[in-house]
Amino acid sequence: MKKLAIIFICLFVTTGCYNYHDLQEIGIASSLLIDYDGVYLIQAEILKDEDMIEVYDGQGKTIQDALSNIMMGTNQTLYYAHLNAIIITSRVNIKEVIEYFMRNPNVNNNFYVAMTESTDLYEKENFGETILNILERNKVGNFYETSKNLYNENQDMAIPVITKDKKITKVVAYHNLKPTYYLDIADINILKMLRNKTGSTFSISFQDGLLSTTTNSAKTKISLEDDVIKLKSMIEVSLEEYSASAKTNEEEVIGEIEKALAQNIKEQERTFLDNLIKNDTDILGFDNLIYNKKHNVDRDFKTYNYEIEVTVRINKKGQLLR
Description:
GMP Synthetase, Chain A, domain 3, four-stranded mixed sheet, 9 helices
């Protein structure tokens, strides 16, 4: 396995202290699945070779106890430097997990954190590497970004929810370190846009057909004026699918599509904000904005009015000509 071979070479060259025998004594963890039911129940996905992973499990009153028990009975020690993902259930205290791995000097900050509603995730393939690729592509759940929000009193955290068939169908938003609201696909697309991430998809009915777009760029400015929080978004999209009879090589038609998309996205954004307010979860850092602007200790994003502006531009190179 090329990746595993490179890891071994890097360990040998950069540390100078590992020999072949030593490499047989480490269990390279690709991912960890952490559950809690009175005790911590942890499964570790260990890389063996190109075509094989093995799953070990352990339990204990603390995370450290459970991890120590995972490799008991083998001659290996868990090695986290190439960890791809940590997956937790809703029963797990996310603060304890993040703080444990923040303190661990052998853990890199490049892995991702996700929630799952299933503890039956592992099969024969490298689940951790697959999840890493999915989360990197969707730009959600990075451990470094998640850990920063852990100590930010003015912003809640959000992590993706992974299904057994390796899909992101929801993102869970926290408040006071407890899961409070599950964002659906429409919410996720708005969240990515507001965080200036690309890859959101927006589909609408247009005249006598349908159209679907993907964002190539997104720039959102969030500001506070008096008691109004203003969200101004400028996005560029590619027209991926189009079934209406109006010709998209006509500027007037393109303009109508852009206006229709902007209105649809604006309505979705309003629904998204209403849900955040209803569930008292501030994953966009509005309270940060209020505090920095007004130095108001009694800040509360739920008491402010919101003004939304969305401008859409279609990348002409990506349009479907009819």
